[in-house]
Amino acid sequence: MSKTTSIARLRVNGDLREVGVPTHYTLLETLRYVLALTGTKQGCDKGDCGACTVIVDGAPTLSCLTPVWEAEDRDIITVEGLAGPDGPHPLQDEFDLNGAAQCGFCTPGILCSAAALLARTSSPTRNEIQEALAGNLCRCTGYAKIYDAVESAGRRLSVSKEATG
Amino acid sequence: MSTKGANLKSDWHLIGSSMRKIEGLAKSTGRAVYTDDVTFPGMLHGKILRSPHPHARIVAIDTSRAEQLDGVQAVITGRDLPIQYGIIPWTPDEYPLCVDRVRYIGDGVAAVAAVDEDTANEALALIEVEYEELPAFFDPHDAERADGSTPYVHDARKDGWNGNITKMVKLEFGDIEGGMDSADVVVEGDYFFEGTTHAPIEPHCAIGQWDGVGKLTVWSATQVPHYLHRELARVLELDQAQVRVRQPLVGGAFGGKSEPFDLEFCVAKLAMMTGRPVKILYTREEVFYSHRGRHPFHMHYRTGATADGRLTSVDAKILLDGGAYASFGLVTTYYSGQLLCAPYDMPAYRFDSTRVYTNKPACGPKRGHGSVQPRFAFEVQIDKLAEHVELDPIEFRRRNFIGEHTKTVNELRVTSNGFLECLSSVEAASGWSEKFRNMPFGRGIGIAGSTYISGTNYPIYPNEMPQSAVQMQIDRSGRVAVFSGASEIGQGCDSVVAYIAAEELGVPLEWVRVLRGDTDFTPVDLGAYSSRVTFMLGNAAIDAATRLKKLVQSSVAKAWDVKPSEVLLAGGAALWAHDTGRQMSIVEAFHLAEAEHGTLGATGWYNTPKDVHGEYRGGTIGASPAYSFTSHVAEVEVDIDTGFVDVKKIWIAHDCGRALNPVLVEGQMEGSAYMGAAEAIMEEHVFKDGDHGRAGLHNAPSLLDYRIPTSLDTPELQSLIVESIDPEGPYGAKEAGEGPLHPSIPAIANAIYDAIGVRMDRLPFTPPNVWRAIQRAREAGTLAKPSAPANATANPPLSETVQAD
Amino acid sequence: MLRLPPYQYHRPGSVAEAVALMAEHGDDAMYVSGGTDLVPNMKHRLFEPGHLIALKGIDELKGIEELPGENGDGGVLRIGAAETLTAVSAKPHVRELFPALAEAAAHVAGPQLRNAGTIGGNVCLDTRCTYYNQTHFWREALGFCLKKDGEVCHVTRTGKKCVAAHSADTPPVLMTLGASAVLTGPSGSREVLISEFFVADGIVNTRRATDEILTEIRIPLASATRRQAYMKLRQRKSIDFPLLTVAVAADLDENDAVRTIDGVVTGLGSRPRALSKWAEVAAGRTLDDALIDELSERAYKQCHPLENIIVDPEWRRAMVPVYVRRALEHVAGA
Lengths: 165, 805, 334
Ligand SMILES: Cc1cc2nc3c(=O)[nH]c(=O)nc-3n(C[C@H](O)[C@H](O)[C@H](O)COP(=O)(O)OP(=O)(O)OC[C@H]3O[C@@H](n4cnc5c(N)ncnc54)[C@H](O)[C@@H]3O)c2cc1C
Ligand code: SF4
Ligand code: FES
Ligand code: FES
Known about the structure:
The structure holds three protein chains of three kinds. By secondary structure, chain A is of the alpha+beta class. In chain A, about 35% of the residues lie in helices and about 15% in strands. Chain A has helices at about 25-35, 90-95, 105-120, 125-130, 145-165; strands spanning about 5-10, 15-20, 55, 60, 75. In chain A, helix 2 packs antiparallel against helix 5 (about 145-165). Chain A is globular and about 50 Å long. The model of chain A has no long low-confidence stretch (mean pLDDT about 95). Chain B is built from 21 helices and 28 strands. Chain B has a seven-stranded mixed β-sheet, with helices on both faces. In chain B, strands 7-15-14-13-8 form a five-stranded mixed β-sheet, with helices on both faces. Chain B has a four-stranded mixed β-sheet with strand order 18-26-27-28, with helices on both faces. Chain C is an alpha+beta fold. Chain C is built from 13 helices and twelve strands. In chain C, strands 4-5-8-6-7 form a five-stranded antiparallel β-sheet. Chain C has a four-stranded antiparallel β-sheet with strand order 9-10-11-12, with helices on both faces. Chain C has a three-stranded parallel β-sheet with strand order 1-3-2, with helices on one face. The structure holds flavin-adenine dinucleotide (FAD), iron/sulfur cluster (SF4) and FE2/S2 (inorganic) cluster (2 copies). Iron/sulfur cluster binds near residues 145, 146, 147, 164 and 308 of chain C.
């Protein structure tokens, strides 16, 4: 089979992008090397580590196992898309405040898993957090500070939800 | 500056408080740049062809078909890079690509640069290598016994020597046998520490760029840019001044990126040949082959103690399985013995360590280099001794406390020492006295202690120059630029220099910019290894900042007609100590100083004390300006039907001297304890044998089968910071990055014993291994809760002998 | 990166279209659903199809709903093959009727994989082996093996048979619930009991023809009254494939005596093993310690794990009665 290229229509972080992509590319390769969205990381390239996690239609998904065509016509959010015009997502800020990112290489994937969790419930139990992050390996932190950060961010989100609605 | 960097006042504004990391938000928003995030127009992609044989002679390599493939720009083999290198200057035994012999499955033999990775892979498949297979060594005992009838892993340096032996160290202090004779109890045991690997989540990556006329730039995920800089120049036959190493942020290292690797030389050479930037990104499988992880250790310990629980003599024999290359092995062999002599007083100590080559990926330094394995064995030995003399194991440890401002039996100088406080913190926090030998069968609690260096007094290559330096420059805007050559691998060293600059110069933290990771404009720091960075870089930063501070103080003092020492710089202002109502903005103060002294810039540096070690061969190895101390209590639940060990919680008390930023220190403590627990209960870096497929083949080079704990497998971790305030550390600080790993493993082993009465003297404590040990204990009738020590409650803690001051 | 071999990706809108695409490309094509098994396998060059026919976008393969019974049987719960494991485990319907299935689905791999991986893919999962699920480089250094590119089996050390392990979590539960799979190919549809779907051949361990699509799983609603248990042995609490999976389902009468009981284990050989002679031994007895002992002992005798998975086979064997016992205790206590 020889290599061919086609046009992929991707909705990433709200932007509609049409790009030429070799047909055998994964979503991860497309994000990183075609769209230059290098925030999403690669640690194993075969589903074992979670570093490449992005949010597809609300669900944390491993971009290294996703053929790029499977991501067409869906809403893709990467770590770059978590922050809004008002500044970083509370999770991003709390990760910094709590020292939840050491080397930071697992962080984008973990943030995507955690953001999807907090979108479901802003006051998850510790066990729910552990379950939600159970597909994201972190080699630096021992996870403790990550839990703290997710909990604090959840609290901030509940407060702002109450305030607005 | 002098070696006395400590500044013992405690009214700092920033130091000691929880602060953001300077690159924290960049990391959490995806802006942080790691090596593989860097690309260049026209960049080529490289791949390395690896040996499918554990030991073979390269008879011939034919690259012609690969060269002809469309899209291939260059192909190299070992002959293109014929100069050997090695991180330790005395043991260069590696070529960037093998020249005539391959020594493990995965050893590099050729490399290509092509328009994309797919083409590079296709080209690799077209390279024909003719090998002549050689018998191989996999078991370190076989390697040690080898008689030369088959080729050694490396040719012997002298006729009649065993070429498989990389290093032998025998050191003896005090009267070993006398000590054993005077002991009331001698415990003897064999221990085995299985190899483990670092598994940083970021795979190694490097990019080479050649400007066509004489300047080479290499970007790399390395934790030792300075050593890489030197070796690149040597191997590529360039002047060091022609080479520039740039270090983007590093996505985890733990010792796994602390020497040059084949990919760095290959991208450099391929870039020089093609005139185009070349990137190589390891696959996860290649990360496992490059390894340099923890050596498997076969250890034998004999330890004597008196009936009242004082150590009399320690005797160790250790065989280190080094894998195919020397790496840091010379140092590892020394560390296997040298770092055991604290925090306990040992009247007599001997170790006899041998490191051998085997045909497996090379071992090297992993977090707690060389000393994690003996610490495991020794802390279990202590637990056994305490049981024999019927003492609570914490009490046993207290009784043997070496003290502070003292010397170890192997003549290492110990300054501050908060070990006793570590013991009492974990004892209290864990509820030790209610739990020890007192929980129901299957649940248990264990203790262990340890020490580690805050950097080494002697650099890897002999020289008298500073070990660490920074340059600081003040701008008229008030912005402070810090040029730091230290390696940010997640531990926070870029932030530490920023905290220090802000603290000393009185500017808000946000005004400090750290310019980093580039050998072209940052002064030399030797690298992120042996926990040297905070101590040495911190002192260098204080040195630079104080020089600038003095200039500012003197100008302000002149303007106010007061003494310079009365001028404080803090909170964005210069203030008069006697009446802080008298103040000016820090920017104004900087303007005064710049007008008076010219542009404000300073360098600062740190060099280690050189006169504080034993006068014997090897006496300098293990010598550190300061030692950290740690104690852990681990609580476990053992499922005796399955062998699963559930580590419920680890209490981590660590004497880091002073916590410059407690959040960072806790992060290091938790990460270390996590990694130790992982090595205890699940990790094993192992290989197939002849009965299982093919000998020497990596068992499972993936993050699926080399299991590291998920969130659900990680114990609860509680950090207890102990601050002993070291006289020479920056603000009294010592290391926190590696020490806190050591006790996790023996604490878990001791907790398993407390839970079910089964000694685990061989790692790892995976369910099958624990289950087998339980089966044996069941047959022997020893599967039961051990009894409580008779002297535990009868003997109140000997507080008069244990108080440090 | 671990590159994928080149392929064309097809996204048919219907089962018929998918089957037609398969007919067009023949041996050079494979179906893909969540891709969580196939993509890593392709990266390892275990499969190099030139065409991937995607099933996930086909509406006919979606949905979890009750279908009324025909000719007096009690109806079935239909689960579309392209439903994700997350959906299967979270769906209240499944949780209420078939809690063991919800549990099994919730214990596959890690959370992100369950968001992509489907139940159809789980049932069709390729077998696994330490000598097989490796990169091309690794397998070449090994000298390949019978299942792919080579001549010998490194587990049995003969050239005759592949014993790679069936490693999927949901089929044992589906078997104890009497579920079936609907397969649709060029010549129409057929329904096969999951208990008859697997064959003892590690190379291809199902009766699905390569051009057939598994369109749905059907579980008799009558099975909802059964007491069910599912247990999984793995070293980590997430991500890892099973080293052993045990499913048990039992019908008890009003006096808690066993009417029928089924046990299935997998993670050992090439197909899930239905534990034999359980019903005979247990019928009419209450699930007390003695019976649980007897049944666990029977399970132990029937299971002989091999070194197809890298974890100590003797230990894995010893875990069979332990996990069977735990599953039975769950059923007895439920
Ligand atoms: C790190 C990791 C851990 C894992 N752990 C587990 C685990 O613990 N337990 C477990 O059971 N699995 C595990 N898996 C495997 C896999 O994720 C799941 O089994 C998943 O359910 C597979 O579904 P899929 O839709 O992704 O299958 P795919 O990869 O899409 O397909 C798998 C195979 O089935 C075929 N196929 C798929 N759907 C159909 C269909 N409808 N009709 C016909 N053929 C079809 C494909 O052609 C392919 O051959 C793991 C995978 C990874 C990467
Ligand atoms: S069981 Fe044998 S033939 Fe099958 S995959 Fe494993 S080694 Fe290959
Ligand atoms: S890179 Fe995708 S899971 Fe590791
Ligand atoms: S912060 Fe380094 S891997 Fe998680």
